[in-house]
Amino acid sequence: AAARAGVPRVVHCSTVGVHGDIAHPPANEDGPLGPGDIYQVTKLEGERLATAAAAAHGTELVIVRPSGIYGPGDRRLLKLFRGVARRRFVVLGDGKIFYHLTHIDDLVEGFRLAGTVPAAAGRTYILAGGEVTTLNELVAIIAGEAGVRPVGVHLPVWPFWMAGAV
Q1: What is the Cα Rg of the chain in Å?
Q2: Residue 162: band (very low, low, confident or very high) from pLDDT cuts 50, 70, 90
Q3: Which terminus of the chain, N or C, has fewer Cβ atoms within 10 Å?
């Protein structure tokens, strides 16, 4: 459709999740791909289809891979923020999992640049905030902003195969 309309460049939105679990964040765009769930698998397939279509039609393509997004109107992280602020948030596991977020305003600027900067054509970009935190660190930051102490309760994560044994 872009080629038929004479659009010279398409910016394709994927996800940083196509890289899977990253042992030592942050990842870069050349890191190995290892999607861990069906959403990430379909996003990687979307990248492959967009790349093939762009090549077939001579359209410039830029792939962007956003990390977790937050900002005004966000509903996905609202439960986390509310739970921590109300001191009702319990961390599953040790809380050392990495949580890399980006603010919506930064993401929008990244998309704008991907669509307009000539040197971006044909490249892939991870769009993410400047800091990588663990879930424990993120909970502490949210609690500090809300003026409360973090709950500090961690529940063990049982292997899925043991779920019926409890």
Answers
A1: 19
A2: low
A3: C
At 155 the three-state DSSP class reads: strand
Quick one: CA torsion of 75, 81, 83, 89, rounded to 10 degrees? 120
Omega of the bond prior to 26 within 30 degrees of 0, cis?
yes
Q: What pTM does this model have?
A: 0.83
Backbone angles phi, psi at 87, to 5 degrees: 60, 40
Q: From the centroid of its chain, how far is CA 120? A: 20
pLDDT in tens, 141-152: 999 999 999 887
CB 68 within 8 A of CB 102: yes
Phi and psi of 90, rounded to 5°?
-110, 130
- What CA–CA distance (Å, rounded) separates 164 from 160? 8
Between CA 132 and CA 22 the distance in angstroms is: 12
